Amino acid sequence: MVISFEYGGEAIQIYIFKRNRTSLEIQVETSGNVRVLAPKGVSESQIRKIVWNRADWIIERVKYFQELRRYTNKQFVSGETFYYLGRAYKLKIVSVNSIKKQGNKFSSPDIPIIGLESHQNVSIRNGYLCVVSCDNDSNSIRTTLLNWYWEQTLNQVKQRVRYYQPYIKYRPSGIKVRDQKRLWASCTSKNYLHFNWRCSMAPEAVLDYLVVHEMSHLIHKNHSSQFWKYVGNILPDYKWRRQWLKNHGLKLDF
Ligand SMILES: [Zn+2]
């Protein structure tokens, strides 16, 4: 069943699902759809009343996800903003045809490329995230960027693991970068550390928190108070780093 209602000039569609449950739950999905899971005995007018009382919160969540889609719905065209280590860069697509070889150096009128290697498809130049493209195809630009972030995440994480290793007595069995939609990072029972390829979009301080969090799981395989004490001994200010990820993490995507 779908009900729609107007609130502050906004039309909101609410999808209602009757379930075997005792309480009513309202979910705003990242798509902006609103789902209400209601106990079977609750009438439509009761649902309307409850939804109306939560309308401020619903609108706030819908707007938040609309805003989020501005960050994550990329067309992979010049001018779009991408994050790398917490800094914003404008994307610049450089046509491969515009690149000229002078001796063993490459240059392009699109950007002042200094000593660009021919195999380097992605680079940060003059505050731009430059992608050299031969066909301007958004899918291939996306793949090129994804591979680049993947490689950057692996390099950054390995470097930070080396940095924090003296503080932690056990070593990870290995470090892998993975495409995990929900988790930022994880530690397996066999002590492999897995990191989401999006990690290198986050500020270094947040990346350090993720590394220390997972390395602390080498000692404590849970989120007990001893675990958090262990994290806090290495990063006394870990709480704001963790909160930053909760507040901004969803924007770090494409
Ligand atoms: Zn954990």
Automatic annotation (TrEMBL):
Every YgjP-like metallopeptidase domain range: 23-248
Protein name per its UniProtKB record: YgjP-like metallopeptidase domain-containing protein
Natural source organism: Natranaerobius thermophilus (strain ATCC BAA-1301 / DSM 18059 / JW/NM-WN-LF)
The organism's taxonomic lineage, starting at the top: Bacteria, Bacillati, Bacillota, Clostridia, Natranaerobiales
